[in-house]
Predict the 3D structure of the following.
Amino acid sequence: MISTMDSTPLFTAALGLQDPWKVDEIRFEPEQGEIHFDLACDAKRLGCPVCAAGDQSIHDRTQRTWQHLHFFQFKAFLHAPLPRVKCAQCGKVTQVEVPWARPGSGFTLLMDALVLTLATKLPVSAIAQMFGVSENRIWQAIDVHVESARQATTYSEVRALGVDEKYVGRRLGYLSIFTDQRCYIASAYRASIVNPLVRQLASPEEAAAHVYHLYVVTCSQRERLQDYLQSHCIQVLIHYPIPVHAQAPCRSLQRDPNGLNISERDASECLSLPCNPQMTDDDIAKVIETVNLFKAP
């Protein structure tokens, strides 16, 4: 009686599969130390993954495999023909995402979770040996989730950053991620801010010579621009309201009797746009769009 028992519904439930997905066949290969679950999607039509239009035709199916958590001493693998939906509404042919794995991964989400948990205590080489995979596959899983966590992290409460000069002096590049992101933000501003009321400073002769601790623009209506941006929840600051030659330590220095008109003009018009390394692409796009929409009264 046991040999004829259909265990596929049990494993469908154990794997957390929901309609239209189910376990269609189980292949146990004790000699290879493996158990394989062939999954099936019974749906004839599915919603479009791009535009969410319902009841679209299935264009074709592509066979995929994912490594799952071990079943005791046996390696476990899921196999499924992933449908590609041909959408009559948006015109795109798109592969559906599955609930048990992230897109493009060769591991299931539960396998990813176990890898991340083990990585807090074990070296990657030991984890790779445990699951019989390359170290590169383990690193790929770790990198994806670390990057996702980094993107979700906010440092909005940070008011100061301490840097050990000894390590920076050894050229270990601890600050490169901050500098690279600031340069990325600056290049986006320089390319996309086109409002004629907002003047950008000249580009540095050598792109690598500027770390963009600040991104400064000038505007003859600075106070109005500042109030406008802050009303749209964009924090801007005036860092240099007094030109250098007018500051107390420099007042005794000899200067041009005709004045330093450009310095004085820039000091009265300069405004620093947000250039925080933690800004997302959406944050950057919001600043650009809002600056470009600023108008004269």
